[in-house]
Specification:
The structure is a single chain. The chain is of the alpha/beta class. The protein has two domains: 102 residues, 60s Ribosomal Protein L30, Chain: A (2-Layer Sandwich); 162 residues, SPOUT methyltransferase, trefoil knot domain (Alpha/beta knot, 3-Layer(aba) Sandwich), CATH 3.40.1280.10. Helix content is 35%, strand content 20%. The protein contains eleven helices and twelve strands. The strands form two sheets. A seven-stranded parallel sheet has the order 8-7-6-11-9-12-10. A five-stranded mixed sheet has the order 1-4-3-5-2. Strand 3, helix 3 and strand 4 form a beta-alpha-beta unit. Helix 6 runs parallel beside helix 11. The protein starts with a strand and ends in a 9-residue tail after the last helix.
């Protein structure tokens, strides 16, 4: 690594970090440019530990000693800035002190990802980055093998998703699915039964699914508000609901995912 002090917040040298709060801009720009942003020393370490390659770092000087051991092997610029410069560049107060721009890894083939899996989570059109990150954290903690996201689902490598996941997005294999007709065929061809979480007259309670869970199970979660699409429900082998009390009809999707994953763990002993 080589140290560079930021002299001009508008410099092209730190352009990767400009306007990080502009969700619409970043959601287009980052995938197109093959980059994503990791925030905080812990998340940066996890990304490097997962084999991801940084292309630059932007941080306050006080974080340098802690991150230097993991950054030293890379021939990259490490930009040092004061808090006001960080805010001017990024558009917000960077409380965690360190940001890194990483090269996006190539997404794996869906069939190859499914080949060795028993439990997978499918996210259909969940646009809230916080929920996506929280679901990845539950997947890592509760033992599912992979996450598959729909073409219109929020980016798991968007900064907020990565931060909320606590970097577990780097540990959990994931990829994007095609639209539902070919996606359902890929899941069924790999031996998966599809369980859609939804409120429906023909839905079975979660305990019934958990009591006789198939060996290979794909759990499908939709966006809050609209829920799952008709195409997702039509592709499902089971429609499942979490019974609730006191007139509550649904949970936050990230909370629901955690409940369901615990209930249908492939090896319950591993979640104790």
């Amino acid at each position: 690594m080589h140290i560079e002090r930021v002299r001009d917040a508008a410099s092209d040298a730190v352009a990767d970090y400009a306007r990080l709060t502009d969700v619409a801009l970043r959601s287009v720009r980052e995938p197109e440019e093959g980059l994503y942003i990791a925030e905080s020393a812990k998340v940066i370490r996890r990304a490097i530990g997962a084999g991801h390659r940084p292309r630059s770092v932007l941080m306050e000087e006080k974080w340098l000693d802690g991150l230097a051991p993991v950054l030293e092997p890379f021939d990259i610029p490490v930009h040092l800035a004061d808090p006001d410069q960080l805010e001017e560049i990024t558009g917000y107060r960077v409380h965690r002190g360190a940001l890194a721009a990483f090269e996006r890894p190539e997404l794996p083939d869906v069939a190859r990802l499914l080949a060795g899996a028993r439990r997978v989570v499918v996210l259909e059109d969940i646009v809230d980055h916080t929920n996506v990150g929280a679901i990845f954290r539950s997947v890592a903690a509760l033992g599912a093998d992979a996450v598959l996201v729909s073409p219109r689902c929020a980016d798991p490598l968007y900064r907020r998703s990565v931060r909320v996941s606590m970097g577990t997005v780097f540990q959990v294999p994931w990829t994007r699915l095609p639209d539902w007709e070919p996606a359902a065929a890929l899941l069924h061809d790999a031996g998966f039964e599809i369980a859609a979480l939804a409120l429906a007259d023909d839905a079975v309670p979660l305990r019934r699914l958990a009591a006789a869970a198939p060996d290979r199970l794909a759990l499908v979660f939709g966006a809050e508000g609209d829920g799952l699409s008709r195409r997702a429900l039509a592709a499902a082998d089971h429609v499942v609901t979490i019974p609730m009390r006191h007139g509550v009809d649904s949970l936050n999707v990230a909370a629901a995912a955690a409940v369901v994953l615990y209930a249908v763990a492939a090896d319950p002993e591993e979640t104790r």
